[in-house]
Write the structure tokens for this entry.
Amino acid sequence: MSDVASRAAELREAIARHNEAYYLHDDPLIPDADYDVLVRELRSLEESHPEIALADSPTHKVSGASSAAFSPVTHATPMLSLDNVFDEEELIAWSERLRRGLGEIDNKLVFSVEPKIDGLAMSILYVDGVLSVAATRGDGRVGEDVTDNVRTIANVPHRLTGRAAKGSMEVRGEVFLAKADFAALNARQRAEGAKEFANPRNAAAGSLRQKDPHLTAQRPLSFLAYQLEVVDGNDEVSRISRHADLLATLADEGFLIAPETTSEVGVAAMVARSTWFEEHRHDLVYEIDGVVIKLDDLAQRAALGSTSRAPRWAIARKLPPEERTTRLVAIEVSIGRTGRATPFAVLEPVVVAGSTVSLATLHNQDQVAVKDVRPGDLVIVRKAGDVIPEIVGPVRETGRRRPKAWVFPSTCPRCGGALERVGEESDTYCVNPECPAQRLQQITHFASRGAMDIEGLGEQRVAQLMDAGLVADVADLYELDPAAVAALDGLGELSANALQAAITSSRTQPLSRVLVGLGIRHVGPVAARELARRFEDIEALMSASEDQLAALDGVGPVIAASVAAYFEDRAHRERIRRLLASGVSLREPREENQLAPTLAGRAVVVTGTLPGYSRDGAEEAIVARGGTSPGSVSKKTYCVVVGDNPGASKITKATDLGIPQLTASQFEELLSTGTWAPLSP
Ligand code: IVH
């Protein structure tokens, strides 16, 4: 066999294996986008080497299979698949093929542009208005009889009473789980200790293809109709000449029709509308993996016809995939300014949701264990919208031994000191106060916009200063030797002077900003303001008792204990002494006591408890900055801050509406700047 023939055989074998897992077991082995890549490769091999093409290649068939657990149903008209395009250019090329296929036509083409819901295709036969048989797609010709299961879906009409109530009609559509229903189902699975579903599509297919319809009835499935086929005996509907009118007929009969579906006149409008879906996919109540574009004119459809696999008059524009597989090269640990050790995945770069991902967070030691990912594994990477990339889990690879499990290091990768886990927390910390990784983050934080705001002093510059031995502590910044700074690589006199000037002017920053910059645990801008306002200078603050601190508004016992502990530490007292000696003001001027209206006119919803805040305290902090803090999420919500034990409904709603969700750790930044940076891995 030639290389090409053996590669084609390998691809066909892999595609068959993935079809079985997806259609028969409702448990795919790889993300859809990776499957599409295999099919594309096979198709292009077959096109460039016609001698290896096979009549029964998966590129010519509707993929799918039927389980012996269900009786076979032969579809009155075959249930076809759709050909795919992946960008605007390919979509336009398809529309040009349509034009050529239709010969000379003067008018612009009219298209129906519809969401491609990621669920399970269903054909429901109504005879004289009575639901009689419901079947899955199967291989396109013969599907599985799931009538009893489909009867349990709440929004499937059992009887039709309108125009479609006469003769035999097949209603085609998608059985799916709305995102909110999927979240609720998984919450229930979790509560019952059962396995969670990987995505709404698997959950829908697995719920529907149950031998016992009572089980299906307990799942919040929905049905959305997108096609109506007259089998026979209904002249009135047979005379309908436009797809849009068929959809209207379905809607009249009580079927759910995608409200986002529009008719577009001309290719440009059609392309623009399909791109609209790409931008709004996260605002829809269901998960979509693409957009389906169909010719609206049924006579034009008939003229174009179909191949054995797919109609020529319709196409699926696939959206950028949010899940891909890639190789996990290594797991590394980063050390934050508090010493927290966060494991992250180093990946072979892969394009997910339109951007290249080479790092992904693994959160903490427990998450690595739960996900059971090991360096060397093929893993699924997920990136939805603006959220930071995450590892879903490993891909089961046949005939490959799993690499050894990864062990969380017991020492800090930077300073070699001990890594410790305290109490019940899932976080691990480097407990060496001298650790250069911590110092780097501390100094960078001190110089950051929300703290001392020293322009030009970002992480890389700090690292350079540290490597040159010029700084090891924030206090060293004010004792820098200008000549040594100017001699640094890539700096020169001009930038060195600018940096010096920025450092010098930061000495007049108010006490509240210094307190933020010191990175005292639990002390964010709100508590820092309160402390600074009450005590006005650092000496008064340092000599306050823990009780005095705890009595302040917005401070409380946790912050009070943390502040007291900070100032008890000898090294910290020395740092303060040096800052004072270098002329850092460490005073809060009275006119500074006004909070900046960073959240003016913005609605920030808080769910769960935020460390260091009472319920009211968090709301007050938002209101003090000109914002509002309503009790529920709506389209107008600016963002949702998610604390401990958050409310599931708020998160679901925010997810459905595509409202940004912030962690408690981003709350301070939100308050002080009105915006937030993505979490670093
Ligand atoms: S039309 C002959 N319309 O996508 C036309 N399909 O990849 C075939 N799908 O099996 C179907 N939303 O399960 C059509 N608005 C929509 C759809 C849609 C989702 C699914 C359907 C089909 C698959 C083809």
Q: What stands out?
A: The chain has a mean pLDDT of 91.
